[in-house]
Amino acid sequence: MTKYQSYIERLFMGAKFRCLVCGLCFTLVGCPGPGDRSNPVYPAKLEINDGHVCIKAETYVGEYIYRTEILSSEENESVIRYSARSIQPEWALTQQCLPTYGFTFLPGRKYLVAYAVSKEGVKQHRIIEASFTIP
To answer: Does pTM top 0.70 for this prediction?
Structure first.
């Protein structure tokens, strides 16, 4: 056994090394806290008039719709996504109907509609969502 092999064996078998490995694992895995970047979720208000679905939300000046997801309880119409990273952003106006892009909501099915709303100069976007069943 060489001098270096015994040094390496003592290093990896020592209590300090085991504590260091456990400490690194705990630090890297961690727990949720204030540094985590999860987007806040806000509820939307739903109005149904003559079969027309109107989803309203409290938005702020300058916010635009970054992404829209419409999820249905039926498999064949499960997801519609729209990305507004285009020349003309879709503005989210407060207490006005948010766009559903011509999606047909059918009676007796469950839906979840989620809008990711962002603002220029803000890194984190907000999620506005509504879950409902058409009577």
So the answer is: no
